[in-house]
Structures are given as C-alpha cells and as structure tokens.
Amino acid sequence: MLLCSSAAALAAVAQPFVLGRTLDLLLSGGDAGRWLALSAGLLLGEMLLDSLTSLFTGRCTAGWTASIRSRALTGLLRSAPDGARPFSPGDVGTRLTLNAADAGGAPAARAALVASLVTPVGALVALAVVDLWVTACVLAGLPALALVLRAFARDTGASVAAYQHTQSEIASRLLEALDGTATIAAAGTGDRERARVLAPLTELAALGRRMWALHGRALARSGVLVPLLTLAATAVGGLRLASGALTVGGLLAACRYAQLTAGVGSAASLLGAIVRGRQARERTLALERMPALEYGTRSLPPDGPGDLELRGVRVVRDGRDVLRADGVRVPGGSTAAVVGRSGAGKSVLAAVAGRLIDPDEGQVLLDGVRLDRLTREALRVEVAFAFERPVLGEGSVAEAVAAGPRQVSRAQVREAARAAGADGFVRRLPHGYDTPLAAAPLSGGEHQRLGLARAFAHAGRLLIMDDATSSLDTATEHEVDRALRRSVRPGTRLIVAHRPSVADRADLVIWLEDGHVRAVGPHRALWREPGYRAVFGATGADAAEPGERAARLPEPEEVRP
Fold first, then answer.
1. What's residue 96's pLDDT?
2. Inter-axis angle of helices 2-28 and 33-78, nearest 10
3. Mean pLDDT of all residues in the chain?
4. Most buried in the list 190, 410, 491, 493, measured by CB within 10 Å?
5. Which residue has the higher pLDDT, 350 or 236?
6. DSSP labels for 110-121?
7. 3-state class of 509 per DSSP?
8. Lowest-confidence pick of 185-199, 260-274, 363-377
9. DSSP 354-382
10. What whole-number distance in Å separates Cα of residue 291 and Cα of residue 287?
C-alpha cells in the first residue's frame, strides 16, 4: 500500500514538470509529442496506482483489525476469569469491536500519511529545481501549517480518549438493560431504564462536537493558509516571469508545485485517524496484556484418587479477604458440599480449587501436587467444571457436549446426556443430537443440563459443580445426583450447594462464613448448629435431624401451594 501510494505521489510530482515542458514546446513550435504522451501516461499511472492503493488499504485495514481482535480476545481468554473484573461486558465488547476497528485502520493511515508527505517534499525539491525564489516563498509559510497540525494532534488525543470511554459506558449500560429485560418489563421501568442507558449521550454529543470543531478548525486554518501561500508563490513566479527568469511552462509548474507543497495541510484527516487509532490501540492492548495463568511442567501421579487439599489459602479483593481456607482436605473419591450465605466465598473456593484463579497466598494440591505446577493439559484433563450458566458455544448439541480437553465418542456423549437428564429432551429436538444449538429452543434448566452433560463427559479425578443444578427441580436434581454417583467416571466431587438435601447426600460439608471456613464435617453433625441451619433458612421446628425432617416435611424448595 505504501509503495503504491508513494509511487502515485511521485507521479503527481512529475506531472507539473512534464506539463510545463509540454507547454513550452507547444508555444515555441517544438515537437511536444513525447512529452504529451508522457503526461498522459503519468495521469493514467496515477489513477491505476490510486486504485491499487485503495484495494491494499482495505485489505490492510481488515487484516490488522482481525489481528488486533484476535490478540485481544486471546489475552482475555487466557487470563484468569477474575482478571476481567475491571472490564464490564459492554466495555469489552466496545474494545473488541469499535476500538479494534479504529486501531486496525491506524497502520494504513500511518502509511498514507508517509505517502502524503512524499508529495509536498517531492514538490518542494522539484520547485527548487524550477525556481529558488518561489521555493523560498513557500518555505516561509510552511512553519505555520506545521503548527496547525501539531495543535490539532495534541488537542484531538484527549477528546478521542474521552469519546471512546463514553461509548464504552453506553454499551455497558445497554448490555445491563438487555440482561434484565424481564425485570424491567415487570417493574414497568422502561422509560427510566431508557433514560439511564442514554444519559451519557449528552456527554458523547459534546465530545463529538469538540472533535469535529478541532477538525474543522484545523481544516479552516490550513484552508486559509494554503490559498495565501499559493497566491504568494504565484505572485513571486509572475514577477520572475516578467523579468524573463521563468518561462510560461515554468510558471505553470511553479504554481502547481506550490499547491502540492502546501497540501501538507490536508494531512489533518490522516492525523485524526492516527490519533483515534492510537487511543483505540491502548484500549485493546489492555485486554491483550492481561496477566495470563502460568502453568508448570509436572503431571499428576497415575491412578490418583483425586485427593484435594487447601493449605493456607487466602484470596484478597479490594483489600478484603474473600476467602481463607487452611487445612481443608477432601479425600479422594468423596463428595464435598460447599455451603454458606450469599457472598460467603463459595464460588471463590470452587474457582481456587480448580485453578480458575490463583490464591494470593497458600497452595492448592491435587493428589499431593500443587495445581500451579501442573501443565495446562494435565490440569484441564483431570479437573472439570459445571456452572450455573454454561456457555455452550456454536455447532450441534452433540458438538457442544463433546467440546473439551478429552476425545469424547458419540456413545459417551449420549451416556453423559443421560446422566445429566438431558437425553430425553435432546431426542425430541428436530434432529436429535445433530440439532444446531441456534435452532434448539432450550429452557434454562435444559441449557444447564447440557452444561452438566459436558462436564460429565469430561469428568476427571476432580469435578467441581458451581451452582450447576440451580435451574433444576428437586426431583431432577436428585436423579442427576444418583446418576453422578453411578454413571459418571468416579472421582472427587466439590459441589456448591444451596439445598440441605444436597449437603445431606455429600460425604462432608465445607461451611463458609464471610470468606472463612467456619467448619468442615458431615451435614448431620453441622445441622445441630443454629448458624448452620440458618444458612438454609431453617429455624425452630425445622431444626430436626435431616433424616427425621425429610420424613415429616418437604424441603422449602419442594413446598407446593
């Protein structure tokens, strides 16, 4: 792109000289045929080179935009999930779309700016060949143009940064509103929510007007300076023509070269694109440079039972302990329920136990090996997760379940789906397991069961279920638990639980309170503690032993009107 645009600029620089020479020959009665053909060739060549420049500019911009988006997305995905906390979903979306597009156009703009400088520099050199006095006149006015461009680039940078930040804020508010459309409709707060989402538009409009004002001011100043400079050069050239020091063709060339030299003022548009691209690149780099989880070189001992241990673990957020766990051990092959009130640190413990995040202090060991010393493959093959809101991706239902670190056969996909209680509704889909997810009308519970099926299909020696059955009714949850014990690969289970029945079926319970492990033990033993019963909203008559209580009353979640 740079070569084509520079060649086009050189052709534009050569044209005035060739036209001037042609005119002098025509006026003197000489043979101007070759020069006329050369002039036509230069014109056609410039048109062809400009067309190629446009083609390469589009390809360059598309390629750089794709590369920037890919690197930013890679940086986001390879980091610990907790590392994305400073960025809202709308902010991330803006950085990956609008900002990446602006940043992707910057290399082409820089190349175009370099090529655009070929024209005035070449024209200035050619003008010096034609006449030094006219050259001196043009040089006297160039510093003023340079000052205009410098002020424009300086003032535009701050405005562009603020504009992009405000765009991001609007996108974040819009995504929040889209996430809560049902709540907004039920509460009748549509007008208020619309006003909240669009509130930053006033600031965005002001910033946009300022940017256009800066751009317009730069163009206006250069628009005044360029004609004045050209007029002064023409006047000097006319005087040189009157004195016989310059021919008519020379005057034509000198005037044209003066215009081309003063054309440096048109670089304001390219400078604006470069400034926008630079600010946008800083925003995409923030994603690209997010700290990634580092992996070790070790593997787990073969045929390990999945013994999990947390030693001196501490996780700090905003100066506050959100998790402290020391000496917590889940024996291999057992099931541990993690319980606690909202905000107690259950999901943090689950993330630390499976090394989605690293603790600020302490160690997590699986079969005696620290998780941070395992290779990525060893960790992800042996530690599987199921979440409340699984992301299934694209493709068919079977492909969504099979996606993961292990090679999963078709038969294993169906077996996992049966264990998760998903086989029945999947078979009723238009194409069964081959139904595209986009064409599968899934409820929240069905979506969650497919996520469970994927976790079951890839279960290793440790399976962590972070609120992964919250959308299931109690009967289905019980069936899933029974299938988990019988049909899924044996191993250690760590289950974030909200229902006492889940905790009762576990081998042991890890009770969290305000980020601290208050107790570890069987559900029946902990049930005697009023504070533990309060976690499930059980007081008074509900304080009976779990087995006795189950015989008398259904759990709170099972009560029917």
1. 92
2. 170
3. 83
4. 493
5. 350
6. HHHHHHHHHHHH
7. strand
8. 260-274
9. TTSS--SEEEEEETTEEGGGB-HHHHHHH
10. 9
